[in-house]
Amino acid sequence: MTTRQAACPIAYDCVKLSFVRSGSAIVFSEFGERIVKAGDVILLGTNTLCGSEPEGWMTITTLYLDVDYVADQVFWQHAAIFTDRLDARSCMDARYAEPAQVFHLGEGRIETLMPLLDELVALSREGDFADRYYRMQSILFAVMDVVAPSIEITLTRESRTQRMKIRPTLPRHRAFQPLRAEARRAAELLRNASSQRWTLDTLAREVHLSRAQLSRVFVDAYGKTPLAYLTMLRVEHMARLLRETDLTIDAAARQVGWTNRGHVARVFRQYVGVTPRRYRALGEGKST
């Protein structure tokens, strides 16, 4: 895909792997504000906000990977040392990949991956995945064989509970069971009324669960607590208002449900990587 338009910060409930084929852009996420160019790769964990501002234009190819699929690959990758999936989960709690990172593979190495990526994109558009499953899987494994050594793995900087309140880990082992309907319903309520003054008690009553039950099933489904998920939605909405309207920063914050200026600046920067004022300046600089 070639783009010349800015992209507001948006998050997906999947792992995103974007290969920059040509051009350049300013991207902003939890890593802050970075310039990416041909030869770079952008890796985003599930529910991690990221926006971009092309410097003229940028051509990228993006893979969207289901989080359960990624988690299962991690389990089988280390099957020789894991007794079971609970053992694998304990290991991932101790070490995790940064939820948003940029690394440089080099134009030459990405160029060698392009035929594989182009074929993978073409196969994914044709449907009938069952007949093409093994070919698609073999292509993905060939790509990851090149990419994986560059993915940064760090020692845990926060407790598991703290990470749930901010962002998911990547890869993230969530419960290997069907997604609870209550979790889907809670996420739908938050998405449809993100400016409402939600509390965990109110949301739990809406889906007929206790606070503890809701927190548990929601974290299993989305990798973060309901209120952290709500914060992500509000940041995404506020970024869109700052880019697409003339509302002041305070007015935009109020429209998404916030009144504390200091809180707004802190969480916006935490999730997007830049302050609201800097984010607006990026958009204004492009329009002048």
Number of domains: 2
Distance between the termini: 25 Å
How many strands in all?
9
Alpha carbon gyration radius: 20 Å
Query: What would you call the quaternary organization?
Result: single chain
Provide the residue-averaged pLDDT.
82
Please name the CATH architecture of the largest domain.
Answer: Sandwich
Can you tell me the CATH superfamily of the largest domain? Regulatory protein AraC
- Profile the largest sheet: 7 strands, antiparallel
Structural class: alpha+beta
The SSE string, one letter per element, is: EEEEEEHHEEHHEHHHHHHHH
Q: What coarse outline follows from CA principal-axis ratios? A: globular
Percent of sequence in beta strands: 15-25%
CATH fold name of the largest domain? Jelly Rolls
The percent of residues in helical segments reads: 40-55%
Q: What's the tally of helices? A: 12
> Which spans have pLDDT < 50 for at least 5 consecutive residues?
157-178
Return the CATH class of the largest domain: Mainly Beta
Write the layout of secondary structure elements.
Layout: E1 2-3, E2 7-10, E3 15-29, E4 32-37, E5 40-44, E6 50-65, H1 67-77, H2 85-94, E7 95-97, E8 100-104, H3 107-125, H4 129-147, E9 153-155, H5 160-166, H6 181-192, H7 200-207, H8 211-222, H9 226-244, H10 249-256, H11 261-272, H12 276-287
Antiparallel strand pairs: 1-6, 2-6, 3-4, 3-5, 3-6, 5-8, 7-9
Helix pairs in contact: 3-4, 6-7, 6-8, 6-9, 7-8, 9-10
What does this structure look like?
- This protein has about 290 residues and is α+β, with helices and mostly antiparallel strands.
- It folds into two domains: about 1-155, Jelly Rolls (Sandwich), CATH 2.60.120.280; about 175-220 and about 225-288, Arc Repressor Mutant, subunit A (Orthogonal Bundle), CATH 1.10.10.
- About 50% of the residues lie in helices and about 20% in strands.
- It contains twelve helices and nine strands.
- It has helices at about 65-75, 85-95, 105-125, 130-145, 160-165, 180-190, 200-205, 210-220, 225-245, 250-255, 260-270, 275-285; strands at about 1-5, 5-10, 15-30, 30-35, 40-45, 50-65, 95, 100-105, 155.
- The strands form two sheets. Strands 1, 2, 3, 4, 5, 6 and 8 form a seven-stranded antiparallel beta sheet that branches. A two-stranded antiparallel ribbon has the order 7-9.
- A hairpin with a 2-residue loop joins strand 3 (about 15-30) and strand 4 (about 30-35).
- The longest helix is centred in the middle third of the chain and has 19 residues, at about 105-125.
- It is globular and about 50 Å long.
- Mean pLDDT is about 80; it is low at about 155-180.
